[in-house]
């Protein structure tokens, strides 16, 4: 099926923090889609054809769909749990909620609602932690496949320091992950992420098993958590007394490469920063979570200067919003506290092409380049009365983007397309 989606079209081909020639913008633009793939982008007048189905989103902006590179599927009912920092929050709220995902019916019911929330917020792809149960990953992949969404996910491996009903073993964590990789990795748009939760909840044997999986499946991403919270770091180092630092634990178990996503990466030693750069490991900034759990301030400019690629993510349910707009809003404020600047163009680059690069998937998602999957978000900068009033004084695209970034949320998402299909009901 061929269709033309018309609107004010924006995407990025370079990082605005590195060059002025970072994006293209068509005030009356269009995207030609065929069978879920972008075939052409340009001025509407150049792309229109007699008889071609058209949807007109003017005056709204159309961008590549947002990518969320760190989110926890079984925490949909944990988000907004009061009063704790990381380790207490995990024990009191998160682990009990995740224990319910061994029930396939619960996992399936939540998977559909989780994906609906993502697309309602303009997110078209995510890298998700599932619970320890293979059933939870199975439910998420099945639901994503049914929706046509590119999901990167993995069951967490965790064999200690949680609760008995959330523990796998080094062997069963390996076996279950392997079976899920064989079943789902590369099936349609689904990909597997090898997911040792973090060093506290894995024995050295389990981290070795995860390293073996990483070596055996060299095209799978690896996701974990690192240096989020000071008590976490102290506890981790007490469990691995031989380690030079936190990163060294993952390093010595064969878990560092350009496929590795290290969630949080806040309280880093100079040696860790140098080693992350050397191995190509990625950092993932989770602003709403870092503020909510009182974890700390992510040094985006410092890591960039060291040559480290970083993504930006919600980290729901430690994070407090599914919205990448709200995530960019809080990210802007954290960087303000550090004396760093996040420009509107850099922000929207980050949530789209920047995150795709972090995942090594920029050939398929994150831009509107011909051949990419037609995952799009349509943004309405006048979605609320307060936004509309502020927009009366907006003169530039950058101002409009900033209003979306600071004031926007799911109300500003007029439509989301996944592989060319609208996810919100359309008016007839
Ligand atoms: N570290 C280990 N597990 C988690 C988690 O579920 N959320 C956050 N924010 N940090 C973690
Ligand atoms: Zn997390």
Structural class from helices and strands? alpha/beta
- The fraction of residues assigned to DSSP E strands is 15-25%
Number of strands: 16
Flag low-confidence runs: none
Helix content: 25-40%
Pfam families: Amidohydro_1
Protein name: Guanine deaminase
GO molecular function, one term: guanine deaminase activity
Pathway: Purine metabolism; guanine degradation; xanthine from guanine: step 1/1
Please name the defining characteristics of this protein.
428 residues, alpha/beta, TIM Barrel, 2 domains, 15 helices, binds guanine, binds zinc ion, EC 3.5.4.3, Metal-dep_hydrolase_composite, Guanine deaminase, hydrolase, metal-binding
Question: In summary, what is this structure?
Answer:
α14 (385-391) packs antiparallel against α15. The mean pLDDT is 98. By secondary structure, the chain is an alpha/beta fold.
Give a verbal description of the structure.
By secondary structure, the protein is of the alpha/beta class. It has two domains: 2-64 and 368-422, Urease, subunit C, domain 1 (Roll), CATH 2.30.40.10; 66-342, Metal-dependent hydrolases (TIM Barrel), CATH 3.20.20. The protein is built from 15 helices and 16 strands. Strands 5, 6, 7, 8, 9, 10, 11, 12 and 13 form a nine-stranded parallel beta sheet that branches. α9 links the parallel β11 and β12. The chain binds guanine (GUN) and zinc ion. Its EC number is 3.5.4.3. It is an enzyme of class 3 (hydrolase). Catalyzes the hydrolytic deamination of guanine, producing xanthine and ammonia. It holds the Pfam family Amidohydro_1.
